[in-house]
Amino acid sequence: MTLIKSISGIRGTIGGKVGDNLTPLDTVKFASAYGTWLKNSLATPSNEKLKVVVGRDARISGPMIHNLVVNTLIGLGIDVIDLGLSTTPTVEIAVPLEKANGGIILTASHNPKQWNALKLLNDKGEFLNAIEGEKILLIAAEERFDFSEVDHLGEITINDAYMDIHIDEVLNLPLVDVAAVKAAKFKVVVDGVNSSGGIIIPKLLELMGVEVVKLYCEPNGHFPHNPEPLKEHLTDISALVLKEQAHLGVVVDPDVDRLAFICEDGEMFGEEYTLVACADYVLRNTPGNTVSNMSSSRALRDITNQHNSTYQASAVGEVNVVELMKKNNAVIGGEGNGGIIYPESHYGRDSLVGVALFLTHLAKQKTTVSALRASYPEYYMSKNKIELTPQIDVDAILSAITNTYSTENILTIDGVKIDFAKEWVHLRKSNTEPIIRIYTEAGSQEAADLLAERFILEIKAIAGI
């Protein structure tokens, strides 16, 4: 059982001992810390209550965690806009629309059903930065809470309209062409992994004139497969796409911020290529820059260059991608895990935006999903890790690697990334364990695997193991 405290929130497994898992007491403590941080950091008139938007995915522990968080905020004298069953991007767009001071999304994203988490947002509906996150962790550690007296408790406003509001916002984006999608008469299979994506994605598609075949779209929290949208977990939808002779399959994770597609032949489009395809469409119509994190595919850089625009890589983490996107005025960005960030909508990963842009692109190209995939540069990834003893200095190893390859194109903003002419390697250390994660990409799976093996051997040689 596990409890992970980070700058972006608190994540853990349900049940077990306090302090070791996401128990009710831990949930209340971290909700209290977030609410206290808001009260301490915002200069508001003494008679003006703060307001926080709260929404959850459909996992089994959701109602319990939801009630604990909402009532803790009320106890702090904070008003709550309760969205109930929702998605991460839905809560993100609701915060500024409600003129709220922050937001909490109750979801463990792609983690299995025994996990849950509190994802914390600022008043823009964006994830907190490192400094803000550290302050909340400090408040939680010191338990510096001051709850409100009975006449000053917060109030709950229930608003279950935001998934529909979110859909309308996506359909009204200038680059989303509903008429073109309707004319294409697509048939799409949707795997909602029995969470809120099973409600919101089919509804979006139906409003775009798409024939929808639902798979695992009952929001009961019983995930029928590992909810991370990777090839090995998606055999059922691949088979159903073929059986239904559908044009494609759409897969989301439980909180609907990661998006993967299945081609009409049942093969994966590739999670890394979700962003590539959406960026290709956006750049065809909106010249501008792109951003992804350092562990994402080089294909985005290639497509961006083809459109005579500039690509840059950020440190891993959504907040880092967003920060660089703002700095570079990027028109689209995201992460290679299927996360689309489209500033025209909002600065957060959003599968609804990704679906709408992708289907518009596909309709206008008048091609199949597999043919669209074949039109993009072909890259393959290998993801590995080395477990080291606690006595080994991981930073010294990464420094030695940097010195060895000093003549190459190197980025050191997040571990060490070495960009070779036809391939790259990204080495990152874990913040909690003596582990080095090794990500490689090349023009073939064999080449990516060989590059990873080469660096594993080099790291072991430096470490003397």
UniProtKB/TrEMBL annotation:
Which terms are listed as keywords in the entry?
Answer: Isomerase, Magnesium, Metal-binding, Phosphoprotein
**One Pfam family of this chain:** PGM_PMM_III
Which residue intervals define the domain Alpha-D-phosphohexomutase C-terminal in the entry? 403-456
Q: Which cofactor does it need?
A: Mg(2+)
> Where does the Alpha-D-phosphohexomutase alpha/beta/alpha domain lie?
8-143, 175-266, 273-379
Report the Gene3D superfamilies cross-referenced here.
Answer: Alpha-D-Glucose-1,6-Bisphosphate, subunit A, domain 3, Alpha-D-phosphohexomutase, C-terminal domain
One GO term (biological process): carbohydrate metabolic process
Give the highest taxon in the source lineage. Bacteria
What's a Gene Ontology MF term here?
Answer: phosphoglucosamine mutase activity
Q: Does the keyword Repeat apply?
A: no
User: Which GO cellular component terms are attached?
Assistant: cytosol
What is stated as this protein's family in its record? Belongs to the phosphohexose mutase family.
Recorded protein name is: Phosphoglucosamine mutase
Q: Which organism is it from?
A: Flavobacterium crassostreae
